[in-house]
Amino acid sequence: MRISLVGIAASLLIALALAVGPASAAAPYTSKVTLSEHLPNWHGEVLSSKFGGVRSCERKRLVKVYMRRDGRDLLIGTDLSNRSGRWAVPDKPTKGIYYAKLIERRPGDKPACLGDLGGNVVIG
Questions:
Q1: pLDDT by residue (tens digit) across 15-25?
Q2: Helix runs in the chain, H state only
Q3: At 90, phi and psi to the nearest 5?
Q4: Domain 28-123, CATH number (from 2.60.40.10, 2.40.128.270, 3.40.50.720, 3.40.1800.10)
Q5: Domain boundaries along the sequence of the chain
Q6: Cβ contact 72:65 at 8 Å
Q7: Residues 6+ apart with CB under 8 A from 40
Q8: Most exposed among 2, 27, 31, 34, judged by the fewest C-beta atoms under 10 Å?
Q9: Cα separation, 77 vs 79, whole angstroms
């Protein structure tokens, strides 16, 4: 009886390790978006974890710039980040509170990259 309990426990541990292994390998990479209002336009950078040399989380990422307001926030513009992770939205900043939103890449995309909500920039 003792041998069978040890065997069952060992089998459960192996099954758990096999189940967790592939799931953690598919975990998305973290990403961060920055926002600056210096003229002539809104601009910033997409940064990601450099683990394993994954710079593709910085390239061709959709960034949306919003102005906060009562009800639904106003979309100011969008851009795709370039090879260096830089992006820009042409708009003359006016009085208000703005933020950038980085859209995530789904687990089916290669590689999967998390989205981010940039900090607020206050004008005026």
A1: 544 444 444 45
A2: 2-25
A3: -70, 115
A4: 2.60.40.10
A5: 28-123
A6: no
A7: 90, 92
A8: 2
A9: 7
Q: How far is CA 121 from CA 59, 95, 98, in A?
A: 24, 10, 5
Residue 97: CB partners within 8 Å, gap ≥ 6? 67, 68, 120, 121, 122, 123
Which residue is listed with tokens 């006016």?
94
Q: What is the pTM of this model?
A: 0.73
| Torsion sign across C-alpha atoms 121, 49, 29, 47 | positive
> Could you tell me if 78 and 89 are in contact, meaning their C-beta atoms sit under 8 angstroms apart?
yes
Q: What are phi and psi for residue 2, nearest 5 degrees?
A: -65, -40
